[in-house]
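so my prof wants the structure for this chain in the tokens format not the other one, which i didnt know existed until like an hour ago. anyway here's the sequence
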Amino acid sequence: MERVRFTREMEATIHRTSSGTGTTDRRGEHPVLVGSRVTVRALHASDAASLAVHLTAPEVARFIAAPPATVEGFERFIRRKSLQGTDAKTVWFAITLNGTDSAIGIIQIRELEPRFQVAEWGFALASAFWGTGVFMEAASLVLEFAFEQLGVHRLEARAAVRNGRGGRALQKVGAVQEGVLRKAFLKDGRYLDQVMYSIVAEDWRASRETRRMAEPSVIH
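here's what i got, hopefully its the right format
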């Protein structure tokens, strides 16, 4: 997603954990969110090499702000930090597969209004994992954290009109298309139209309960 920003807020952390789905990363008191296939955790210096491979691939970089061009650039990117702890304005996650701990993507939540009442998120995932369900599981873990732990009321995302895959991914996790932002994203010297998507807390909770009720009961 083009709203992933490679900024000095890289290692901003937050002293909260995700109830029932996470532990705490002692390197930064960052929540570690664990699913059946995916773990979503803080970014580590050791992620630089894998992120440099995955996020600079043309098909991934096409619709995100330009990532660092080298492993060294990613190392600098990961080292930089300006906001930490409970004052963090941005929370960054690495997406990993259980049992590997190699970063295959990132997810970012950025505060737009105080105390994350309104926030914006963005993500990027290695193309080898598109369509595998990895994004859906990682996004679900992060959405649970955002709405239940950060206290987000409204979560926004932007996707280029031409980024059909990104738009469909957002809709699959419950985002609603609101409108088109004309010439809102500068990419490779051209301004692209974006679609604004949003998820509101009460809608997300209602959808979650509907999904839970639809799950088959297990009889022992």
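also thought this was worth mentioning. The CA atoms of residues 53 and 152 lie 32 Å apart.
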